Amino acid sequence: MNVHSRRRFLANSAILSASSVAVPAFSSPRVHAAENNELKLGIVGCGGRGCGAADNALTADPNVKLVVAADVDKNRASSQIDGLKAKWEDRVAINDDSFFIGFDAYKKVLEADIDIVLLTTPQHFRPKMIKEAIEAGKHVFAEKPVAVDGEGIRIIQEAGELARKKGLNFVGGLVNRYGASTREVIKRIQDGAIGTVVTARGDRMGGPLWARPRTEGQNEMEYQMMNWVNFNWMSSEYINDVTIHQLDVALWSFDDLQPKGAYSLGGRLARRAPDDGDLYDSMATVYDFEDGRSLYAFSRQIAGTFSRATTTVNGSKGYAVLGNVESISSIFVNGEETKIPRGELSGFVVEHKVLIDAVRSGGQTYVNNVGYMTNSTGAAILGRMAAYSGQYVTWDEMLASVGDKPSEYSWDAVPPTLPDERGRYKIAIPGTGGGWDYLD
Asked: What does residue 302 show for φ and ψ, rounded to 5 degrees?
């Protein structure tokens, strides 16, 4: 691997050791920890993944405390917070005065005396919250992906630059970047273990995620918010919400190059249930790069089908198969397999340890994942746009895109898509210039 590629690898990989973390361009430390070195956390979005992230942060460091929280749904959020309290006791100091409910409740968290904010809402809301968190002087952990359209990508890029100038650390939830097995295989690939990287493929095959049936008296906004993974305006498709993990590792093996453009095919083969929303259930995308190489991403969410969550990287001397998150990965050269074991510490915990250690360092180490977070999220959005339109879509066209939004952000809002009398939602129809229609 040449010096330029090695530097880019280090810069984009949220390095885990203090000796190899880039030093930021600022003079004064941005640490707000108390004299006892305790760090205070806040969380926005208290669902399973959100409180899972809080649990990971509390596991990562014995001297952090969760002190403020916000969500739009009090009942569901309260049960998740209660679970954290039962496990962590006084390290979760959330009470009626520090637990805020509503679409604007996140602002209360950003106004609080905290060091780090965990942003784990549906990704539709992520760009605005990340931008405001950086403006408020908070270090940020943000779940993947970070946007649903090009407008959101642009906002995150600007926020990332502001974070760098202010010395605020930003860690993103593309957790494979922090898995020991994945990191080691990527390092070996970068060092030439399989020769020159020729192509890569991300596979995410399996069943659907989840759906919550309508309840009596529930309006359309309430229903869609509770089923956000099934609606494009909030999730930007399965490729963005889930396959992004495998796509991200594939892009990593390409030294995080930015795709030039993409073409894609996809559709709805089996999703016909009342709670299936407006997403496709299958998608295949080809990404082009300026150097002539291609990268592939395959997605499927159909019940009863086989499952696979791997990234395959093909080189001139061999290939590597990288598992998802905590899985074992392998390198194959001359017919021989070298297995790379997973680490003792979960990547879900490591990503928070990296952030916490950087905050504690007072500027001696610095981490900012915005570069690869926006590149991988942008690539996923690009694939979705290509599949929905049936056209070749360039990176610049993706970056110029603006997604649908509700009439306002309240429980009485009108969502961007509404069901017909049979409860069906319109699906994107390729080749119609952006048309959508109901499937019979």
From this structure: -130, 125
The CA distance from 356 to 168, in Å, is 12
Residue ranges making up the domain that contains 58? 3-175+347-369
**CATH assignment of the domain containing 243:** 3.30.360.10
Do residues 204 and 266 both lie within one domain? yes
Residues 324, 428: Cα–Cα separation, whole Å:
30
Contact 314, 200 (CB under 8 A): yes
Q: 3-state DSSP: the chain helix, strand, coil percent, rounded to 5? A: 35, 20, 40
Question: Same domain for 203 and 249?
Answer: yes
Per-residue model confidence as pLDDT tens digits over 146-204: 999 999 999 999 999 999 999 999 999 999 999 999 999 999 999 999 999 999 999 99
Give, for 129, the enclosing helix (H) or strand (E).
Answer: helix 126-135
Model confidence, pTM: 0.92
- Note whether 163 and 209 are same-domain residues: no
**pLDDT tens, position by position, 266-291:** 999 999 887 899 999 999 999 999 99
Residue with tokens 């995080």: 256
CB 416 within 8 A of CB 124: no
Angle at the Cα of 141 (from 46 to 237), degrees rounded to 5? Answer: 70
My answer on whether 242 and 122 are in the same domain is no
Residues 281 and 404 in one domain: yes
Half-sphere exposure of 315 (CA within 13 A, CB side): 24
